[in-house]
Amino acid sequence: xxxHSNIYPTKALQALDAAHHWHPFSDMKSLNEEGSRVxxxxxxxxxxxxxGNRIMDGMAGLWCVQVGHGRDEIADAVYxxxxxxxxxxxxxxxxxxxxxxxxEKLAKLAPAHMNKVFYCSSGSEAxxxxxxxxxxxxxxxxxxxxxxxxxxxxGYHGSTLAGTSLGGMKAMHSQGDLPVQGVxxxxxxxxxxxxxxxxxEEFGIVAARKLEExxxxxxxxxxAAFIAEPIQGAGGVIVPPETYxxxxxxxxxxxxxxxxxDEVICGFGRLGEWFGSTYYxxxxxxxxxxxxxxxxxxxxxxxxxxxxxxxxxxxSGDEFYxxxxxxxxxACAAAALANLEIMEREGLVDRVKNDIGPYLKExxxxxGEHPLVGEARMEGLVGALxxxxxxxxxxxxxxDVGTVGTICRDxxxxxxxxxxxxxxxxxxxxxxxxxxxxxxxLVTTAEKTLDDTYQDLKRDGLLG
Length: 464
Ligand code: PXG
Known about the structure:
This protein has 464 residues and is α+β, with helices and mostly antiparallel strands. The protein has helices at residues 10-20, 28-34, 60-63, 72-84, 97-109, 123-140, 161-166, 170-173, 191-195, 200-218, 244-254, 276-279, 307-314, 330-345, 348-354, 356-366, 403-414, 436-459; strands at 39-43, 46-49, 54-56, 114-120, 148-152, 183-186, 223-228, 258-261, 286-289, 301-306, 373-379, 382-387, 420-422, 425-428. A hairpin with a 4-residue loop joins strand 2 and strand 3.
């Protein structure tokens, strides 16, 4: 069977998929019974499935398709690069033009003190690189006892060994006996779910001071780094209270530990700046990147490294024993360059900050008035709705966490839009090229979806 055409009936594709394809993060038994949705093409912010339905891609694929689907320019750049040099490695004293050009570009886009890029193929690999890099840095600068990396509960940093360990997803830790040694987790700054007995401002300080407490408890001389997403994505678009990042900044200034800002979701314009840490006025030592780097057209990740860390790693003169066959892959680098060129030419980052971001936010926050919504939040072009059964008691979770979110997600699909459910909150993270009309469609569809879901829950006695 050819991979690219859809001449097969949906049922046949679903049967073959069920027989041979193991999906990521999926309950394969029930998925195989239900059958996968088959996506056959996409253009702009719109997907088409094998039944010919048009569906708005409210999640930009998986938080990554910044420039929208189907951009010829990226396909052409990759085609041209593949004909010229489809592959060569960057080990053994070699390099190639696309990776040189991309590195220069990223160093320009990154904050002034970050000038080197290490490449890999995904966000998970980027965080595996981070894990080894921070420990090696401290070895090389003569503080080998600094090994512990502090992450946050409900943070997400990928699903390889280091990614899963640094992340704070307990369900993931339960498979494979993780986290690995030397990772410590502190509480997340999730005001709606965990801090509502205080004002958001008070809670932001309390949550940030968990870092200070952990450093004191474990010993500053043992801590290598703190890793965090500017806004937690997969954890449910957790927007920290305004006081959180300034307080973390104060703590980091006083302590000699590295700060890793995981920019895999928040980077490349998602928050209306090139990097999410800039949005919050933070100065990272390392920035893992992926997703929006290529808008998902080809897999590529990396770690942007500060001068301090780069100099430390070079101190002893021996190598950093780390790298991947596809580090700096020429075709992926060409895709990234074409993608960044589109983003700059179309001013997409500024558009999120000054145009489509505020436009969508104003409308999205109004959904907070819906009887099923306890809180609506949005920063840049990423948002969430906390679904609640009883608006008078909004912080009380549904009895069976996750059921309502799934019902709502299925309703959203029926109305022609992808929203992602995290527990019982609904998430959107649309392509940065979303037009005003498309933003209107998004909000209207979300509203219809909420209405239907409310009726479903009422009918089934699930409102609580
Ligand atoms: N860091 C962050 C902040 C991420 O969001 C990764 C690292 C890992 O990247 P890779 O490329 O290895 O997947 C991610 C990925 C979801 C979902 O369901 C989120 C991600 C990946 C898959 C699913 O929200 N984020």
